[in-house]
From TrEMBL:
<keyword id="KW-0342">GTP-binding</keyword>
<keyword id="KW-0472">Membrane</keyword>
<protein>
    <recommendedName>
        <fullName>Fzo/mitofusin HR2 domain-containing protein</fullName>
    </recommendedName>
</protein>
<dbReference type="GO" id="GO:0003924">
    <property type="term" value="F:GTPase activity"/>
</dbReference>
<dbReference type="Pfam" id="PF04799">
    <property type="entry name" value="Fzo_mitofusin"/>
</dbReference>
<keyword id="KW-0378">Hydrolase</keyword>
<dbReference type="InterPro" id="IPR006884">
    <property type="entry name" value="Fzo/mitofusin_HR2"/>
</dbReference>
<dbReference type="GO" id="GO:0008053">
    <property type="term" value="P:mitochondrial fusion"/>
</dbReference>
<feature type="domain" description="Fzo/mitofusin HR2">
    <location>
        <begin position="230"/>
        <end position="369"/>
    </location>
</feature>
<dbReference type="GO" id="GO:0005741">
    <property type="term" value="C:mitochondrial outer membrane"/>
</dbReference>
<keyword id="KW-0547">Nucleotide-binding</keyword>
<dbReference type="GO" id="GO:0005525">
    <property type="term" value="F:GTP binding"/>
</dbReference>
<dbReference type="InterPro" id="IPR027094">
    <property type="entry name" value="Mitofusin_fam"/>
</dbReference>
<dbReference type="GO" id="GO:0051646">
    <property type="term" value="P:mitochondrion localization"/>
</dbReference>
Length: 371
């Protein structure tokens, strides 16, 4: 009985031992398989992460070079727009006489009608000038240049973001705020009758209109004393009066000689011709003549003021183009930034997966060695 009992015990434990060894070997095999699978998966993740990092570096490098190229291109385009608008505006200023002559409205020399006439004239000119500039300076094509097209960044974004890319807007139009009403707000017309051989006209031929007006007017001495310009005008007027006085004496002497030689008929004829010329000019100074004078004065005044604002207007237009181009490229840059964020997120996911696989490898090795 004792022998049988010991044999049964030995047989029973031997079976348990064999079973335990089989289980241990099976666990080792599973751990080895897990370790090998983790290692293979880790290698794939490392390769994919490296590929994603290379892709991210490539996108950033290409975007940096593209940004520099676009900035230079935008600077060139804005400079071209500045020159184009300045040239077009100067051409429009040269055509001001034609534009003013095209204007038709009821004209009357009364103050109320003159203000209304000038307001309509300013409105007409601003519409024609803005229309001419818009026709000459159509810059919508600037927005479709190759460096700003979606195709320039399409290779840098993921397929999901490529569907969000859209072509730049072709409806952009520059606005030309000439503010002609403000520029010509202080325009004052002079449509009073002026005899071409009158004293004022003769003085104006020698000095400028402003100087003639001041020379013919009574001088007012300020508290600080006359300025250099005032003294110069007074000196010129004094010299002119002196010359005219001597000329008057010479005319009187010559007139006396002519009177004695040819008689009073020639003198009377000259005075009659002078009077007839005055009468002719006075009778022909009608509302149409006043309108022509006003248009000529306004043309000269508006041309002078517009020439002064050519740099400001061209710079404002170039700023509009700069903002539009910058915003267009900014939208494309945002799509590239989204693609970069996707790449960075994918790299983080792969890094976390690699860390988990490494932890799985360590645990499987430790569990296998303990067994």
């Amino acid at each position: 009985q004792e022998f049988i009992s010991q044999s049964a015990v030995r047989t029973k434990f031997e079976q348990h031992t064999v079973r335990a060894w089989q289980i241990t070997e099976a666990i080792k095999t599973v751990m080895d398989a897990i370790n090998i699978a983790s290692a293979n998966r880790k290698i794939c993740c490392l390769e994919e992460r490296e590929e994603q990092r290379d892709r991210l570096d490539f996108v950033r490098g290409q975007m940096s070079r593209l940004s520099d190229s676009v900035k230079n291109r935008i600077r060139t385009l804005t400079d071209d727009v500045t020159a184009k608008v300045a040239s077009a505006l100067l051409d429009q200023i040269h055509s001001l006489p034609v534009l003013v002559e095209e204007f038709r409205a009821d004209f009357s020399p009364s103050l109320e009608n003159l203000e209304l006439y000038k307001a309509k004239l300013v409105q007409h000119l601003e519409q024609r000038l803005s229309g001419g500039l818009a026709h000459r300076c159509h810059v919508a094509d600037c927005l479709t240049v190759s460096c700003l097209s979606p195709d320039s960044v399409r290779p840098l974004v993921s397929p999901s973001i490529q569907q969000q890319l859209c072509a730049p807007s072709s409806s952009f139009e520059m606005t030309f705020d000439l503010s002609l009403a403000a520029l010509c707000a202080d325009f004052r017309e002079d449509i009073d009758f002026r005899f071409s051989l009158g004293w004022t006209a003769l003085v104006t031929r020698f000095i400028c209109a402003a100087g003639a007006h001041r020379a013919l007017a009574v001088p007012e001495v300020s508290a600080d004393g006359p300025s250099l310009k005032d003294r110069l005008v007074v000196s010129m007027a004094t010299s002119l009066v002196s010359v005219s006085s001597r000329a008057s004496m010479a005319v009187l002497l010559i007139g006396g000689v002519v009177w004695r030689s040819v008689g009073w008929r020639v003198v009377a004829l000259s005075v009659s011709l002078y009077g007839l010329l005055y009468l002719y000019e006075r009778l022909t100074w009608t509302a149409s003549s006043q309108e022509r004078a006003l248009k000529q004065q306004f043309t000269e005044f508006a041309a002078f003021r517009l020439r002064a604002v050519v740099p400001v207007t061209s710079s404002a237009c170039s700023q509009q183009v700069f903002k539009e181009l910058t915003s267009t490229f900014g939208r494309l840059t945002q799509r590239v930034d989204l693609s970069e964020a996707e790449l960075e997120g994918r790299i983080r996911q792969l890094t976390c997966r690699i860390q988990r696989l490494e932890a799985t490898q360590r645990k499987s090795k430790a569990f296998r060695e303990n067994k």
